[in-house]
Design a protein that fits this description.
The protein is of the alpha+beta class and 156 residues long. It has a single domain, classed as Immunoglobulins (Immunoglobulin-like, Sandwich), CATH 2.60.40. Helix content is 16%, strand content 33%. It contains two helices and eight strands; from the N terminus they run H-E-E-E-E-E-E-E-E-H. The strands form two sheets. The chain has a five-stranded mixed sheet, with no helix packed on it. Strands 1-3-6 form a three-stranded antiparallel sheet, with no helix packed on it. The longest helix has 21 residues. It is elongated, with a radius of gyration of 21 Å. The protein starts with a helix and ends with a helix.
């Protein structure tokens, strides 16, 4: 009887432990909330906005947090590395995977960075900071020269 009870407890704990561990994330931190995967604009590329009204940002809808997605947070920064200056941010519905930013928000030859985080509906934990993708804007129709804000490797 004792062996049956021990076996039962091992099976029971083995089945319950993963569900319990998944609900123990930290609130407001990474808490296991998966990072958002970016699509557009591509990282470390020139973006030609000549004659365009806006710049299109896009990210993947997966992976989704274990408790479901409550929201996205989109942030756009002027500059790169330690010289970030946030120029736009928005909290978005969980079914929105794109953002359009007016072209007049961008300066020719300037480097910009962007990121998107998602919040788990069950734990309210945001995904960790993750990567920031960067790009340099062109509006003149000619290739951009050196970006207005140098990359970290050039400043150290």
């Amino acid at each position: 009887m004792k062996k049956v009870f021990i076996l039962f407890m091992l099976v029971f704990l083995g089945a319950v432990a993963p569900a319990f561990a998944g609900s123990c994330g930290s609130h407001g931190g990474s808490g296991g909330t998966p990072e958002v995967l970016y699509l557009l604009p591509h990282n470390d590329h020139d973006v030609d906005l000549t004659g365009k009204e806006s710049l299109h940002f896009e990210w993947k809808s997966v992976p989704k947090p274990g408790g479901g997605r409550e929201a996205y947070r989109f942030e756009l920064f002027r500059g790169a590395e330690e010289a970030y200056d946030r120029i736009y941010h928005a909290e978005l519905r969980p079914d929105v995977y794109t953002m359009e930013i007016p072209a007049d928000k961008f300066e020719d030859g300037m480097m910009y960075t962007w990121r998107v985080k998602q919040r788990d509906a069950r734990t309210s934990a945001w995904s960790r900071q993750g990567d920031r993708w960067r790009f340099t804007v062109r509006k003149s129709g000619t290739p951009a020269s050196t970006p207005a804000v140098p990359a970290a490797s050039e400043t150290k």
